[in-house]
Amino acid sequence: MSSRVLLVDDSVSVGRQLERILADHPAYEVVGHAQNGAEAVKLFASKKPELIVLDIVMPVMDGLQALRAILSMDENARVVMVSSVGGVGEKAAEALRLGARAVISKPFEPKEVISTFDRVLAEEG
Question: The whole model's pTM is what?
Answer without folding.
Answer: 0.94
